[in-house]
Amino acid sequence: MRKFKSLTLIAFTALAVAGCSSSGKEVEDGTEQELYGKSQTYLQDGDYSQAIRYLEAVKNRFPGTSYSEQTQLNLIYAYYKSQDYTKTLVTADRFIQQFPNSQNLDYVLYMTGLTNFALGENFFQDFFGVDRATRESTSIKAAFANFQTLVQHFPNSAYAQDALARMAYIKASLARHELSIAKFYAKRDAHVAVANRVVGMLQQYSDTQATLDALPLMKEAYEKMNLTHLANQTESLIQANQGKRFADVEKPAEPNLTVPQK
């Protein structure tokens, strides 16, 4: 389907990766059915490293068979669960190229979004209580694009509601990220940069608390540049939103994932 032509670019927005090979460990000889059956047993037991070994063996030894599509769906899941996010994105990209008409494209998009979402997380930021929104945001922007594509093309997907919730969380996080940058510029009297940043927030994240909190910074920047008309317009906007507050957006819980069956 032509509309998925650019999805490979979305999958790799956060991380450019070279082609990857299998684990290098040999698995015993067996038929496609035998190897696939063993992979399923390991997958159900949560032994993802072993599941990956057998799934890669099926993929490499028996390309283009009836198991190919399901094998790659299982690999996407197994790599994600083992937190090998690079190979999750590589496998998702390969799937989109090989199976552009699959009925499970929504799942692959969703898993790509979850992967980029996870790449935007950091354990140490969690541990030390650092707000992720103040950190570099490339991965989280890629996740937003993945979820947005999913919702636009598959609005009735079983994954659409969670995708929307994650988009709302990401939008609030990105707005806080922009607010932190605007504050940084304000401390350095970079008035033009402050104003431009907040204008961008109004265009992209108008329905977030961070954008409301940024308006006084923009007003002050205009005042210091003697742009009285723009400062007055900003004050009118502040007054129009006086007392308004957007609810905090909680991070969605980790979903209870299962692999769709072809």
Automatic annotation (TrEMBL):
Give GO terms for biological process.
Gram-negative-bacterium-type cell outer membrane assembly; protein insertion into membrane
NCBIfam families to which the protein is assigned, alphabetical: OM_YfiO
Query: What are the record's GO terms for cellular component?
Result: Bam protein complex
Report the subcellular localization.
Cell outer membrane
Function of the protein: Part of the outer membrane protein assembly complex, which is involved in assembly and insertion of beta-barrel proteins into the outer membrane.
- Gene that this sequence comes from: bamD
Domain Outer membrane lipoprotein BamD-like residues, every copy: 29-236
Question: What name does this protein carry?
Answer: Outer membrane protein assembly factor BamD
Query: Keywords, A to Z?
Result: Cell outer membrane, Lipoprotein, Membrane, Palmitate, Signal
The family assignment reads: Belongs to the BamD family.
Which InterPro entries does the entry mention? BamD (IPR017689), BamD-like (IPR039565), TPR-like_helical_dom_sf (IPR011990)
Annotated membrane-spanning segments are none
Question: How would you describe this protein's topology in the membrane?
Answer: Lipid-anchor
| PROSITE patterns, A to Z | PROKAR_LIPOPROTEIN
What broad taxonomic lineage does this protein's source fall under? Bacteria, Pseudomonadati, Pseudomonadota, Gammaproteobacteria, Pasteurellales
Organism domain of life: Bacteria
How would you summarize the oligomeric state and partners of this protein?
Part of the Bam complex.
Signal peptide bounds: 1-18
